[in-house]
Amino acid sequence: EGQLVESGGALVQPGGSLRLSCTASGFSFSSSLMDWVRQAPGKGLEWVANIKEDGTEKHYVGSVEGRFTISRDNARRSLYLQMDSLRAEDTAVYYCTRSNYRGFDPWGQGTLVTV
Amino acid sequence: AIQLTQSPSSLSASVGDRVTFTCRSSRDISTLLAWYQQEPGKPPKLLIYDASSLQSGVPSRFSGSGSGTDFTLTISSLQPQDFATYYCQQSYDYPLTFGGGTKVEIK
Prior knowledge:
Chain A is mainly beta. In chain A, 0% of the residues lie in helices and 50% in strands. In chain A, the strands form two sheets. In chain A, strands 3, 4, 5, 8, 9 and 10 form a six-stranded antiparallel sheet that branches. In chain A, strands 1-2-7-6 form a four-stranded antiparallel sheet, with no helix packed on it. Chain A starts with a strand and ends with a strand. The model of chain B has no long low-confidence stretch (mean pLDDT 97). By secondary structure, chain B is mainly beta. In chain B, strands 2, 4, 5, 6, 9, 10 and 11 form a seven-stranded mixed sheet that branches. Chain B starts with a strand and ends with a strand. Chain A binds chain B through residues 35, 44-47, 50, 59-62, 95, 97, 99-105, 107-110, and chain B through 1, 32, 34, 36, 38, 43-46, 48-50, 53, 55, 87, 89, 91, 94-101.
């Protein structure tokens, strides 16, 4: 089934930086495409970024390209999201999730970023 | 980016009702569509992938259909725990996108 636990969310000033972390257990992390999805307060879901199993390929939504960087450490079973030049519109709960190229499962409980 | 439009945005229904909601894509995405259920304060839960494949552990009252640009999610007999918001999501092209959601409320 698997479990994902996010951390690193905080209150940050516009223009500031933050690094989110996600630790995986219960599944083969190194064989999994991993994604970040966010949800602004009271709003719908927005896909943010993903990273291929070996870290060689990354994709971003246009609104974060050049400001956010996704990375992973397979030895530590960890996924990261470095967020720079943060804006008010980046305020959201950020979820870490695994993709099988068909859907996202499982999901972490989320970590709140307030800008 | 591929846009997914869900309708209705909300609906009121009673326990035992059969409910159907739709997701329309701005272009052909084959069957690369998933459906999620999200209860307030919780992360989303994968219900359906590949438009019609039931995720392991999901009750059989949930079913999905469609291909190309038009998709539906059906709950055959609404249960109390089904009152939630439902989202569709496409995996056909980047950026991956979600629909705006359909909120199912108690009548």
